[in-house]
Design goal:
The chain is α+β, with helices and mostly antiparallel strands. It folds into two domains: 74 residues, no CATH class; 109 residues. Helix content is 31%, strand content 24%. The chain is built from seven helices and ten strands. A hairpin with a 4-residue loop joins strand 3 and strand 4. Helix 1 packs across helix 3, helix 3 crosses helix 7 and helix 4 packs parallel to helix 7. The protein starts with 22 loop residues before the first helix and ends with a helix. The N terminus is likely disordered.
Length: 216
């Protein structure tokens, strides 16, 4: 069976790891939205058959609004992408966005977000993989960020702005380990992210980008 026509697995997870029953509701909302209008609001591109296309860290991704699935372009073909965290963030973003949210250039941390209380305990961001891989390798951090389409920033020991969606930047900052202190990773946001994504979608998106960054 051709992968593009196959019914994808749907493993949707909440931040605590449980299955998300609401995912189908988000798909149903998204199915009824105008892909051209959404493309104008988010700087994505309308695709064939009621779909949206964007580059997730340099990988072409298509949101198939009619068939409730994500696709990615690999080897010239569009195949089903089983990617629960990206799917959760994309569904919550594209099903709910109602207007163009300009970038504010007001760069903030987790503690500055209105829902900062969400990101503690089991909902803490999962940045250990990045710390382990790049804790003593800031140059590798920079090279990987550029490979993923990121822009280098003059902050910390190494820093980069990555774009998982065309209008949602994430800033990753690295302080490398030394003889006294362990490596530290911090994530910053454009203030506008609060108008685009709820806390659980921010959690999903940051963790998915961190995973790609650490594993690339």
């Amino acid at each position: 069976m051709d992968k593009e026509s196959a019914e994808p697995k749907r493993h949707h997870y909440a931040p605590d790891g449980s299955h998300l029953d609401a995912s189908r509701l988000y798909w149903q909302i998204l199915e009824n939205r105008d892909p051209v209008a959404l493309a104008n609001l988010t700087l994505c591109e309308p695709g064939p058959g009621r779909s949206l296309q964007f580059a997730f860290l340099e990988t072409p991704v298509r949101i198939d609004m009619r068939n409730y699935r994500l696709l990615e372009k690999t080897g010239g073909r569009w195949i089903v992408r089983d990617d629960p965290l990206l799917e959760l963030a994309a569904l919550m973003y594209f099903s709910q966005v109602k207007r163009l949210h300009p970038l504010t250039r007001d760069i903030v941390g987790l503690a500055d977000l209105r829902e900062s209380h969400f990101f503690v305990g089991p909902h803490a961001l999962r940045l250990e993989g990045l710390q382990k891989r790049f804790g003593r390798d800031p140059e590798g951090f920079r090279k990987t960020a550029v490979k993923l389409g990121g822009q280098l920033e003059d902050m910390a020991d190494a820093a980069a702005c990555l774009w998982p969606f065309p209008r949602i930047p994430l800033f990753f900052l690295l302080w490398q380990a030394d003889d006294e202190f362990p490596a530290r990773i911090r994530v910053l946001f454009d203030r506008s992210i609060e108008d685009c994504l709820p806390a659980d979608a921010i959690w999903a998106l940051v963790n998915r980008v961190a995973q790609a960054f650490a594993e690339d």
